[in-house]
Amino acid sequence: MSWKCLAIGLILFFSASSLSLAQRISGSSTFRIEDDLEERIFAIDQLEFYEDTSNLLDFEDIIQDRFQDQFRIRPDFDKSNFDINHTYWVKLSIENDPNSSKKWLIEFYDQSIDLLTAYLPERAGGYRTVLLGDALPFDVRSFKHKNFELVIANETEGISNYYFKIRSSQKADIRIAVRSVNRFVYYALSEYFAYGIFYGMIVIIGLYNLLIYSAIREVKYLFYTFYLASVGIYAMCVDGIAFQYLWPQSPGLNQVANGLFSYSIVLWAILFSIKFLNTKNRSYTIHVILQVILVLKTALFLGGFLVDQKLFEIRFYDVIPFFFIFAASIHIWSKGYQVARFFVIAYGVLFLGVTIKALVNAAIIPHQTLLYYSLHIAFLLEMLLLTFALADRVRILKDNRDRALRRTIRQIETNAELKEKVNRELEQKVRERTSELEQKNRLLEEFARQVSEKDEEIKRINSLLDRDNYKLKSSIRESFQARLSNKLLTFEEFRKIFPDQSACLRYLEEAKWGRGFECRQCANTKSSKGPKVFTRRCSRCGHIDSVTAGTIFHGVRFPLEKAFYLAYNSITKHEKQTLDQLAELLDLRKNTVWAFRKKVAKSLEEVEITQPNWDDLLALQDFSST
């Protein structure tokens, strides 16, 4: 009986010792592989780690049994406690399940860690070393993904210990996810899809504003385009996308990219705000303060670039430029500048996003997915709101112009009414004076009667003169038409024939279809009215033809009556003018005049007409694009 008790005691003792040793070796943050579970995320305050202040320990030192007690969980440790001058050893224990139907891997979320050395247990014993980190070229990674991933072998029963050595020149957010490959693929595809939408919107909005700038040449749109480009590349740096796609073979850029493009954001944001809010004229004090902030931010950027790259990290003072832009826009809006209303909302959202991001980076508020991407969300909303702000600015300026035009029209109407009133008063005084004169001198009554008779005669003669005048005008118009064909019209005479675009279109319509319609697609001669004025629809094939189609005037982007005169001037014998004279006369750009005259000359050259007349110009086809 005593032997049995002794045996039972020894068994219990060794069982307890083995349990204690397994617990000590495996650690208290052991992850058990189960098919019912897709993933588990360990933050630094849930992991066992050791902070090597001497930076002298290697893997052979920390793998010893006597060292395992140094690995501890520190619930009060967060990213703000990370010391860039120390080495961190992290231990993760995983209880394997070879019968699992899933493949498993380990993922590090912080893609900004400079050097990450992973020690992976092997089936035959010992450990295999894998080097990761953004200080290494991107191609060394086994997974072409922005984060760092390692495959879990999961081939044998028992607990496997994984060790990680971490060194980083900036505060690292040590956060490890153990997840199935299916979960990783779904998560990665969803994340990259969201990135595609985000960066796609930046590209679309940027190109849209660049096209607006090319059309109207307002520098604020160029500043806004540069601002969007800076936001996009900075977000790519934060996400790790830039390293993957833009400079995979240049890891050194990872150390300066965040600081470079965060400075670029502030630079273009301030320049855009100065132009959009018109601070120089609306508040010179704000204008000077914004310039001072830009100078200080430039000095800080140069300090980080030349002295200490730790200055590139986002800190609480990075909120100051956006806060002041936000406050300045509120002040200018309160002074009655309605254009700033969407601008205020946009920078209010951005200021909130930057504040949350700075607090997350400083570990003042806990890490959450929504808070981590707060800056992305803020940038996206701000881009949309600033686009609305630019459109709203155009609308408000247009409304102000329309109101000014309506005031001018009302003033003209008032002046016309006043003129009518004065005329009526003058007529009344004339009648009164006439009555007085009739009473004083009856002799004038007879004269008035005679004058009345003469007046009737004059009216009859005037009627005859009006008819002759109409015939004369018709004769003059015919004369102008004849001189038009003979290339003898001056600019003023030409404008009398073609005063506006409608006159030109009517003339082209008569020249093109006056003798009958013929479809340019199927040669059909029957047509009906087209969907727009001066167009016709073929009754057979349905082709819609316009009066300018197939002529040298097709696709002209300036007033048609000016194009008519440019074409006429190229053949006229009366007034030969230089490009500068024509540009000034027609209020067009010199390049526009030159391009259209070249288009006419090329079309004439194609049909080999050396002495063209006006009708030849109307019959010309556009050969300039062939």
TrEMBL record:
The Transposase zinc-ribbon domain covers 499-543
Q: Which domain of life is it from?
A: Bacteria
Residues in coiled coil: 409-464
Q: Which InterPro entries match?
A: 7TMR_DISM_rcpt_extracell_dom1, 7TMR_DISM_rcpt_extracell_dom2, Transposase_Zn_ribbon
Occurrences of domain 7TM-DISM receptor extracellular (ranges): 46-178, 191-393
Q: Where are its TM segments located?
A: 192-212, 224-247, 259-277, 284-302, 314-333, 342-364, 370-391
What keywords appear on the UniProt entry?
Coiled coil, Membrane, Signal, Transmembrane, Transmembrane helix
Q: Which residues form the signal peptide?
A: 1-22
Q: Name one Pfam family in it.
A: Zn_ribbon_IS1595
Name of the protein described by the UniProt record: Transposase
Q: What is the lineage of its organism?
A: Bacteria, Pseudomonadati, Bacteroidota, Cytophagia, Cytophagales
